[in-house]
Amino acid sequence: MPQIWNFSAGPGMLPHSVLEAAQKEFLDYRGLGASIVEMSHRTHAVEAIVESLTEELRGLLSIPEEFEIFFTQGGGRTQFAMVPANLLRGKTGAYLVTGLWSAAALEEAKRIGRAEAAARTTGDVPDTSDLSWPEDPAYVYYCDNETVHGVEFPAPPTAPEGVPLVADMSSNFLTRPIDWSRHGVVWAAAQKNFAPAGLTVVIARRDLLGGLLPHMPSMFDWSLYAREKSMPNTPPVFQLYIADLVAKWVRAEGGVEAMHRRALERSALLYEALDERPDLYETTVAKRARSRVNVPFRLRDPERLADFIAAGEREGFRQFAGHASVGGLRVSLYNAMPLEGPRRFAEFMRAWRP
Amino acid sequence: MPQIWNFSAGPGMLPHSVLEAAQKEFLDYRGLGASIVEMSHRTHAVEAIVESLTEELRGLLSIPEEFEIFFTQGGGRTQFAMVPANLLRGKTGAYLVTGLWSAAALEEAKRIGRAEAAARTTGDVPDTSDLSWPEDPAYVYYCDNETVHGVEFPAPPTAPEGVPLVADMSSNFLTRPIDWSRHGVVWAAAQKNFAPAGLTVVIARRDLLGGLLPHMPSMFDWSLYAREKSMPNTPPVFQLYIADLVAKWVRAEGGVEAMHRRALERSALLYEALDERPDLYETTVAKRARSRVNVPFRLRDPERLADFIAAGEREGFRQFAGHASVGGLRVSLYNAMPLEGPRRFAEFMRAWRP
After folding, report:
1. Catalytic residue among A168, A187, A244, A249
2. How much is the ipTM here?
3. With an 8 Å Cβ cutoff, are B75 and A234 in contact?
4. Contact assignment for B12 to A81 by CB distance below 8 Å
5. pLDDT 10s digits, A276-287
6. Which residues of B touch A20 (CB under 8 A)?
7. Checking CA distances to B274, which of A149, A244, B175, B345 falls within 20 to 30 Å?
8. Known catalytic residue at A168
9. What's the pTM value of the predicted model, to 2 decimals?
10. Is the pLDDT reported for residue A2 higher than 80?
11. Which residues on adjacent β-strands are paired with residue B183?
């Protein structure tokens, strides 16, 4: 059997050395006689993991002291509601809609309060210098990388003076530095670059906390998580544990600048192959907005899709079909993917004949 | 070093054979070339786990077809809000408050809508035959086992005719059969008898679904989880995977009737030791309401608490201090605990001298 290359869009590949370390101590965490998944979250061992993870993230991303770092459950769709529930306070959420996930975030915000699209783009990011914003924007929301559509902001958008930016970085968290002077809140579901599914990280400027709308569930209150050091109740200990190992791995590998360089290298291999053969492959994303982590494309001849996938699977490639909502193909290239993966996939693309 | 006995109240002990099986295939799930935590939830492998787990639970607990079984995130405190959000529909939630968790559930319900205590007891369960219920009860809510106070309902309470019972079985799920003719909804956070923290199971009668209050987050809609087979978004795959292994383990060990017998045997060992030495130990729970899974008690001489804990730790006992809110001691005895654990603890209690 050939080596397996896991191009899943998420839950995605994690660093092999992290999984090996977790496997090794899975039955007995650091000599304590129990698995990490059997330890109360109130033990020193688990509290130390959360503290370590928090400090690792603060260091890796140079997160200023005025930002709180905390962890929740419920994935991206829960944050779609938590963002307006914590930030709207009677104002309007302004959304930059660049794909499936920002569109879903806007729809959810409308359930909670007032929200509108300040821009809608397909296959590109908007130019925010001349948008008409709502009268009373509570925040400007964007999805930094649209996993399904392969659209990534090359740089953060510009919000009106004094209005905080809120970024969903679920699929490109820890893949490059973040400019904190531009952001009020950054959040990310973990299952792409960070940890197994079931964990979300929220990084929020302290002065933005404490405004939960009345009648919202108390577990939606970001300030509760900040105050209780991410433990208003039992957190997903296993995911926090793996996240801490992943953060240490990122640091050992050279930090987020190194992750950024690698993401550029990996994705360039695929975009070169795509651009070489416009007769075979189609990609509709503007070059400036091409994602470094998710490369969606189509075959010119969609009838050949099943053949292409079968041929790829014979080469050891896995989970590279497009999202159900758009079809086609998608190769996801998260931090844990060695350069060899996209190199082989690019070779395969060049060699493939319909 | 002596053998370690993990009496944690949760996250608690899991079956050793389950953890060994998970460790063994952690780097390569069933020959697919990736860890189970690296697999998309849309793969056949993960969908098969959720299906298997659902069917295992249906079989183990004889859950009738008119009940939906689904899995959420967010733990017990999230269900405290989801219950009223899905069931109130302008009516009143009636709560039987028997300890810390049912009290917290009532407080949360009051944020969401109208709710009141129909009974409040300390160290016992209420007699529900002569309670005064609210005018328009949407449901009667109870916590089947209060983990902190060690109070367990010997049998389900009686609700007014036609009013569904809602049970929090977080700490005694899968420890005994459930009478479905009496219940509308049973839910349980996983981290006691079922899986690592980060997963909640909800079992709800189908006709009770679909009533989510307006303006509530869409991820609070139980009917969404039922419709989407627990995947309205990425679920905590690792927890689902372990839960499926645990359910199979329960079946192989004789099912929930066997778990019930063992829970009675384990807890009886400790209650006997407690009752033998009222000069040393104090337990304030009425005998009919003594929990089979959490045995809290106090020393007559509270000054000796640190010594008792230190002496117990030398014997290999771990995580048996009482909950921070009540102090004292607590020995938790979940399904995975061998009889040998409480037998040794009872010996230790008999031998200990202040």
Report:
1. A168
2. 0.97
3. yes
4. no
5. 999 999 999 999
6. 27
7. B175
8. yes
9. 0.98
10. no
11. B165
